[in-house]
Amino acid sequence: MELTYHFRDPSLAILALTHRSAGKPNNERMEFLGDALLGAIVAEMLYETHPKASEGEMSRLRAQLVNGQALAEMARELELGDRLKLGSGELKSGGFRRDSILADAFEALVAAVYLDGGFEACRQTVRGLFADRVTALPRSSKDPKTRLQEWLQAEGWPLPQYELVGSEGEDHARIFDVNCVVMEPMAITAAGRGSSRRLAEQDAAEMVLSRLLDTRDSP
Amino acid sequence: MELTYHFRDPSLAILALTHRSAGKPNNERMEFLGDALLGAIVAEMLYETHPKASEGEMSRLRAQLVNGQALAEMARELELGDRLKLGSGELKSGGFRRDSILADAFEALVAAVYLDGGFEACRQTVRGLFADRVTALPRSSKDPKTRLQEWLQAEGWPLPQYELVGSEGEDHARIFDVNCVVMEPMAITAAGRGSSRRLAEQDAAEMVLSRLLDTRDSP
């Protein structure tokens, strides 16, 4: 893998590869900007390639593509480790191999391309880097009820209950309200709605899944 | 406040204002894209206006500008509530006044501008909408040690301890390692480093602050 972008101002690329252990200025502020740009550009890719995916599904797919480990891997493919500027302590302890330092440098480099060449240059660069990974994503993923069930089973937790709460509207346009309830080991109830009971259940399962995943991600 | 952007394809604006209670297609997928774009464009604004702010500080400032309540307020100023497309249930229960529905519509509208007019149009629109709010942000915020202390005092928690762990490097380029330790009501230790003991303490305090805030935000 190769960075196809050529910097007009190479000092931006150097700053992007300067870890905070090397002093100031360093890539920390750029990392903030790059992380946000990466999130937006990959969001757009998924929006295009997964026209049927729900918001929650796209959000999970993005987390699969854009996380510390995945970005560190991409940084290694770009051989950023060799070009990092590290303080002497990090150098001795092999900081150039550490996932978090590599991932941060990758994000900062995305910001550097933006600052140097503008959004379209940054977008094309990111799209190029992620193209194969996006193509490799599952096209049609399993429905939320199935995914929730598999997730709970993998954890050895009891399966959820679906409760019909009510329905409203005329017969030809009825809307169903369903709760999905997980009791153990933590109590989660989420409401879903849809034009059929099954769709309302899928909707509620999706909500529970995203709450479970949020809980998992938090420190 | 007014949306200065005029849609070439008004159906995108209508879709952005269609809540899922009105059926499919609705604005949920657009909301995902809009949320990401908003994050990137506001990140860039803060990157420019707060050249001294750390990553953690910019991240907190952004959360102050881009959150459900703030976006709902902006949606109200744009009078989006009157133009929302809601299902009959949400209509009856006053969904057009609900923060989450309004904030989602605002985010979706940002995506609609992007899809209709491209990044530069979206960026200018968002910058116009956020300009006054960004200007109103505190310019030079307090240092992390002060903010951590104030935060802990506001909660009635004991103050943190700073421990010098060590230092390395030649005298003219010494790097200090410091731990910031919060014991109660939850134990948090974070490492910081810097070219002086004070800077290392600020760095460690910043880490503890962001972990405390992360904990607070999680469900």
Automatic annotation (TrEMBL), chains A, B:
InterPro entries in the record: dsRBD_dom (IPR014720), RNase_III (IPR011907), RNase_III_dom (IPR000999), RNase_III_sf (IPR036389)
Superkingdom of source: Bacteria
EC number: 3.1.26.3
GO biological process, one term: regulation of gene expression
GO CC terms of this entry: cytoplasm
Molecular function in Gene Ontology: double-stranded RNA binding; identical protein binding; metal ion binding; ribonuclease III activity; rRNA binding
Domain RNase III: 1-118
Entry keywords, A to Z: Cytoplasm, Endonuclease, Hydrolase, Magnesium, Metal-binding, mRNA processing, Nuclease, RNA-binding, rRNA processing, rRNA-binding, tRNA processing
Active site (UniProt): D35, E107
Pfam families from the UniProt entry: dsrm, Ribonucleas_3_3
Domain DRBM: 143-214
Primary localisation category: cytoplasm
Subcellular location(s) per record: Cytoplasm
Cofactor: Mg(2+)
Annotated residues for binding of Mg(2+): E31, D104, E107
Root EC class: hydrolase
Protein family per UniProt: Belongs to the ribonuclease III family.
Complexes and interactors: Homodimer.
Protein role: Digests double-stranded RNA. Involved in the processing of primary rRNA transcript to yield the immediate precursors to the large and small rRNAs (23S and 16S). Processes some mRNAs, and tRNAs when they are encoded in the rRNA operon. Processes pre-crRNA and tracrRNA of type II CRISPR loci if present in the organism.
Protein name: Ribonuclease 3
Organism field: Dyella dinghuensis
